[in-house]
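User: hey, got a sec? need DUF6090 family protein folded
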Amino acid sequence: MILRRVIEHVKTQNWVAVFLDFVIVVVGILIAFQINAWSARQAEKQSLHVALERLRDEIQLNIGVIDENSKLHDDIAAAGHELLDAIRDPELDEIPMVLIGTVFAEGFTSDYSTGALTYVLNQQPFHNTENGDLRRIITTLPAQYLDALEDERVTIQLLDRQWVPYISQYLPVETFWNLVNEKRDRAGSFQSEDGATIQDVVSLDEFKQLASTLRFQNEIVNRIGYQDLIVIEQRELRKVLGQALALIEEELE
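Assistant: Yep! Here you go:
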């Protein structure tokens, strides 16, 4: 319709009308571009908000994991301190099997969910956001998770390569672990003879001699130190996750 009007105005040499028609066409095109750009920005904003909502839920889940696992790591460190006190007690009258099992053989790594974080980081609208604080802190989260996991992984390696092999030289693993599990009201992990006791394979005096060695006590101290490092890293991660959570909530308002 506009084109037909332009042709008619050209035929009548009505140049003012031609100019006005041209202006109308240009303005219409500009408005269309603006509408498309606005619609695209709104779509990107909505997509980012959905991604941030998922990330918020994921962070809340991981904070819960930290709160639960930090206590477990603290419990292992506490068992180490309790074991040191026990072996230094001249009136020690039994082998502290559960404490030994906790210190020399227990360990785990935390299972953090990071799928939503990866999704957000792969979104271009996130990198274009004007909220620089939000962008910076979320970008650091992958490294923060790795830092928190590093000491846990090192501890697992030490358990496999050092602590379990060391204690197994002196306390036969089958009998020892069946008795530890019995103390904890769990099913035994190994088969052993009925009625076997730790005294059947190592006497209290033999254990006291082992416990008096510098190596035995140093291994306990080392385990306590690693547990303390793990808890420090987890607390730092929790702090950063809390900051990220607050910024996400602010962005979603």
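Quick note: Residues 187-196 have pLDDT under 50 and may be disordered. Let me know if you need anything else on DUF6090 family protein.
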